[in-house]
Amino acid sequence: MKRPFNFSAGPAAMPAEVLQQAAAEMLDWHGSGMSVMEMSHRGKEFMAIRDAAEGDLRELLAIPSNFKVLFMQGGGLAENAIVPLNLAQGAAVDFVITGSWSQKSLKEASKYADVGVASSNEASGHTTLPDPATWRLRKDARYVHICSNETIHGVEFQTLPDLAALGCNAPLVVDFSSHVASRPVDWNCVGLAFGGAQKNLGPAGLTLVVVREDLLGQASPHCPTAFDYSTVAANQSMYNTPPTFAIYMAGLTFQWLKRQGGVGAMERRNAAKSELFYGFLDGSGLYHNKVDKACRSRMNVPFFLREERLNEAFLAGAREHGLLQLKGHKSVGGMRASLYNAMPLDGVQALVDYMRDFERTRA
To answer: Best label site of 8, 10, 260, 346, fewest CB within 10 Å?
Structure first.
């Protein structure tokens, strides 16, 4: 059966090979007589799965040895509280507002820290990125938070800001939920990075946290023990029962990524996919993208039909052609195509072919 092309922003499409392997191992993982969902998280079988997943992830993202890898729960939204509970201690935290997700992060952190807006692209409708040289960073900030890829508005940092070069000693905290493993990470610029797995790494339920060791041990007394990074790290993410099946699925995805050639190879593919799609949009008379070309996301491409009366017909036709989940986020309207790692170039080409034909016949 030919699968449709799923452009969902998350939970997102997963590689067919990964789903097939999980299906084959569903009732009996490697002769254990158990499904991964039935295993003790402290048993040797699952510990082997966890260890392999962390090892593969470290290799893929080139994570330095002085960073801890934590497998947690709660998604990126929960980390908006967990990060300040671990790092802020009620003190100053600076945020760079680039879209809906960084706005949510600031709002949540305001319950636990003295939040400040170092810069914002709100005046542009979240279609640009503010130059780091213009950021108003406080000297007493415990950390600086950015969302490196805004899923809804479609802006992406092409390179991470070097806070030290800006004269700031605070660590950079990065929400990289929607483009993790799509391009390399410059860990020299990062103190902590977090992201939900349900876009590029696996199914919903798993949250990845990569934190520099010197940032551990600073949690607020009010931080729940299960969310204290020091506790989670000391217990190899096993202080409480982790999302075992989601970790397993992520591990299969990491293996798939390695077979594709790793993150470097995925970055080249993602660049090719986004160039194809943006090139078509820029040459179209019906569709348009509002984001400045210098900061367009490779992962999430919002676009709009200049004639909104055609929106429902466009979506209905797309479904008929096996092109799913193209409706834009309710807060901004329009359309959105998410081009995560699991989306092949053929899927983007099929979308472009459909959109070109729709424009020719309907516009």
So the answer is: 346
Is residue 213 located within the same domain as residue 114? Answer: yes
Domain boundary among 239, 259, 279: 259
Distance CA 81, CA 87 (A): 10
pLDDT of residue 235 exceeding 90: yes
Residue 363 predicted with pLDDT over 70? no
Kind and range of the H or E element at 353?
helix 345-362
| Assigned token pair, 36 | 């991964």
Q: Are strands 300-305 and 335-338 parallel, antiparallel or unpaired?
A: antiparallel
As for how many domains the chain has, the answer is: 2
Does residue 54 sit in the same domain as residue 131?
Answer: yes
Given a contact cutoff of 8 angstroms between Cβ atoms, the answer to whether 187 and 64 are in contact is yes
Can you give the length of the chain in residues?
A: 363
Chain mean pLDDT for the chain: 96
Peptide linkage before 11 cis (omega within 30 of 0): yes
Residue-level pLDDT at 306: 94
Find where tokens 């209905």 sit: 316
Same domain for 161 and 288? no
Q: Domain end: 259, 288, 320, which one? A: 259
Cα–Cα–Cα angle for 351, 280, 276, rounded to 5 degrees: 75
pLDDT on residue 47: 96
Beta strands in 197-321 (DSSP E): 207-212, 287-288, 300-305
SS3 content of the chain, % helix, strand, coil (to 5): 40, 15, 45
Show the domain range for 336: 262-362
Q: Residue with structure tokens 């569709």?
A: 287
> Which residues are known to be catalytic?
101, 175, 199
The structure tokens listed for 30 are: 């490697």
Asked if the structure places residue 7 within a domain, the reply is no
CATH code of the domain in which 351 resides: 3.90.1150.10
Residues 46, 36 contacting (CB under 8 angstroms): yes
Structure tokens at 315: 């979506």
In this structure, the answer to whether residues 253 and 269 fall within a common structural domain is no
Decide: 127 and 290 in contact? Cβ < 8 Å: yes
For 336-356, the pLDDT digits (tens) are: 999 999 999 999 999 999 999
Query: Across the beta sheet with 335-338, what order do the strands follow?
Result: 287-288, 300-305, 335-338
